[in-house]
Amino acid sequence: MTATLIDGKAFAAKVRGQVAEHVARLKQDHGITPGLAVVLVGEDPASQVYVRSKGKQTVEVGMNSFEHKLEADTSEADLLALIDQLNNDPAVHGILVQLPLPKHLDEDLVINSIAPEKDVDGFHISNVGLLGTGQKSMVPCTPLGCLMMLRDHHGSLSGMDAVVIGRSNIVGKPMAQLLLGDSCTVTIAHSRTKDLPDVVRRADIVVAAVGRPEMVPGDWIKEGATVIDVGINRIERDGKNVLVGDVDFASAAERAGAITPVPGGVGPMTIACLLANTVTACCRANNLAEPEGLTA
Ligand code: GUN
Question: Is 266 in the pocket of ligand 1 (CB under 6 A)?
Answer without folding.
Answer: no
